[in-house]
Amino acid sequence: MKTFLKIFAIVLALASCTQAREIKLLNVSYDPTRELYLDYNAAFTKYWKAKTGDDVKIDQSHGGSGKQAQSVIQGLEADVVTLALAYDIDAIAQQSKLLPADWQKRLPNDSTPYTSTIVFLVRKGNPKNIKDWDDLIKPNIKVVVPNPKTSGGARWAYLAAYAYALEKNSRDDAKAKEFIKALYKNVPVLDSGARGSTITFVDHGIGDVLLAWENEAHLALKEYGADKFEIVTPSLSILAEPPVAVVDKNAKRHGTTEVAQAYLQYLYSDEGQEIAARNFYRPRNEAVAKKYADNFAQLKLVTIDQEFGGWKKAQETHFADGGTFDQIYQQ
Amino acid sequence: MATSQLAAKKFRVLPGFRLTLGFTLLYLSLIVLIPLAATFWKTSTLTWGKFVHSVASPAAISAFKLSFGVSFLAAIVNLVFGLLVAWVLVRYKFFGKRIVDALVDLPFALPTAVAGITLATLYAENGWIGKWFASWNPRQSLIYHSHHFTNELSKISWLSIFHAPWHWLIVHTPNSSLHLQISYTWLGIFVALTFIGLPFVVRTVQPILEDMDVEIEEAAATLGANRLKTFRRVILPMLFSPLLTGFALAFARALGEYGSVVFISSNIPLKTQIVPLLIMSKLDQFDYSGATALAVVMLVISFLLLLGINLLQWRTTRHHTI
User: Fold this and answer.
1) What is the value of ipTM here, to two decimals?
2) Do B167 and B286 belong to one domain?
3) d(CA B178, CA B169)
4) Quick check: is B266 in a domain?
């Protein structure tokens, strides 16, 4: 009987230990945010512990943005999604109804706590003298960029090039199409995702220029050494807005609504913004942006809403079957 | 064969026919039939016009040609070299044979994405192997011949599968020498598909070869058959069935391969895009029925091909037992 009581006491003690709540959160994100969220999760865990006393363990999932949205629709239990473009979160809202259609209005800046853009990564010394988008359509230039049908970053890159061509040719759509056609004729390899393209360009030595997320380009410099590559900032590019959202129904079922919301809101805090800036994402916060101004080159940035009338329209005109991208490859 | 089946009907040593058959059907339904049926069902939500639009678009047709053409070539290469490997492993004793034997299975175990990246790196123009091909500089006459050859090829319609990739493979450098690029061309896809299909022929032929007595060859020799005849008339007929099985497996495996190919192919629409990639890109655009439409066509063609191979095999084995 005594031993029984002992065991009972131990079980009780163990049970009360787990009472200090350990919350699990799954953040489903896209490819290049791996390093950003590694830093940010550590910071948020600390903040949440100090605020509520609860331990929160954040799991990360990374992959191509479209594929990640796909997984969430098919039932991956994401509490929050932080994807490359609003279109993918729209798809989750539309196809699975896990979050309301107006999700983008729930957080400041269209639910985009940080932004990025598309820049050029060239080989050291810039041997082909690439300065701006015009240089990319010259006949002896090889451009490496992923397929916009499968990669979120590649869609931003495509639209950046298109926006430049529109600007340059006083908004003549036919001329912009010609420009984009010439550009993709210079693309020898269309990888399915941003990381694949980086491998092709960096490890396999294919191409003269890689069209990359600004943060990927900086990461490549950091990882492979500034003596091998350099970043060229074009005169104009697109303001890439990777949005974040709580997946309401999943969070509700897991009982994580509160922490999931706090997780995304904290991205807008000074600390969250600094972490973003340190990982080469452009912060929304003016003061933080000023502090890290050296990280980010000045250039003209256009938004998808101004230039292309939003994602839905851009998707239909450019990337859907038979869209302008498909037309490039039709004789 | 036929007599033993007849005997089995009368009397079985081990009971449990109904139980095992029931389990077989359940198992096949859960793993194969229901998922496949779902594919067909999803496709049936498309109208006929939309179905044709998805599967007969220029991009789809070029992908089908590439997938079936290159998979076929890779399976043929595996057929020949798989037989060779199996022969060496069964008939000869040499140092490190066990290791070589284990190596054969490696393509099964290695994650295909890893295989793809590794192969792409090795066969890239700056890679260990690719470098060698990139600097390949044949004589001037060969350039003429290959041009001539390409022109000849283009006249034959059924060979047109290989017509476009051939152009793609010959890259003219400014000094008009040829160089052979492997990674990021159809040749790269071919290398990857050969790699993943390697174990099939070896593993199907090996056990049959082990059971085959060397005396049979000796008997053939004493009866006056020369080496070629012994191989052609004695060994090959016995190996025909396992070779065909191995070929079919390697071919089918290559058709469905995605992971390694996307890394070694340049994935350019109408040139080096395989069907599985096209399916993936449809899925990425949330076009589920378009993706399943392509899958259905792929399934039907593969099924017909495999059925044909099985029939051929059945005919030859029956021919042999009689």
Assistant:
1) 0.77
2) no
3) 10
4) yes
Which tens digits make up the pLDDT trace of A3-57? Answer: 655 655 555 555 554 455 689 999 999 988 999 999 999 999 999 999 999 999 9
pLDDT beyond 90 at B234: no
Q: Tally the domains of chain B.
A: 2
- Distance between CA A80 and CA B34 in Å, rounded? 32
- What is the pTM (predicted TM-score) of this model? 0.80
Q: Do both B184 and B224 map to the same domain?
A: yes
Torsion angle, CA of A66/A136/A313/A103, rounded to 10 degrees?
50
Same domain, B77 and B156: no
- Minimum-distance CB partner of A199 among B117, B125, B285: B117
Domain shared by B147 and B293, yes or no? no
CA atoms within 13 Å, Cβ hemisphere of B64? 18
Does a structural domain hold residue B195?
Answer: yes
Residue B177 predicted with pLDDT over 50 = no
Contacts of A63 in chain B (CB under 8 A): none
Residues of chain B with Cβ-Cβ distance to A205 below 8 Å are 124-126
Dig out the tokens for A197 from the structure. Answer: 């393209």
Q: Do B268 and A67 touch (CB under 8 A)?
A: no
- pLDDT mean over A290-307: 93
User: B184 and B167 in one domain?
Assistant: no
Nearest chain B Cα distance for residue A196, angstroms? 7
The CATH number of whichever domain residue B308 belongs to comes to 1.10.3720.10
In this predicted model, what pLDDT tens digit does every residue of B77-100 receive, in sequence order?
999 999 999 999 999 999 999 999
What type of residue sits at position A64?
A: G
Shortest Cα–Cα distance, B73 to chain A (Å): 23
Q: Residue window 55-84, chain A: list those with CB within 8 Å of chain B.
A: 64, 66-67, 70, 73
Q: Does residue B289 lie within any of the structural domains?
A: yes
Task: Give φ, ψ of A234 to 5 degrees.
Answer: -70, 170
In which domain, by residue range, is B149 found? 138-171
- B91: in domain: yes
pLDDT in tens, B126-145: 888 988 887 765 543 344 44
Cβ–Cβ of B266/A189 closer than 8 Å?
A: yes
Chain B residues near residue A192 by CB distance under 8 angstroms = 262, 267, 277, 280-281
Q: Which residue has the tokens 């992971």?
A: B259
Stretch A294-307: mean pLDDT, rounded?
A: 93
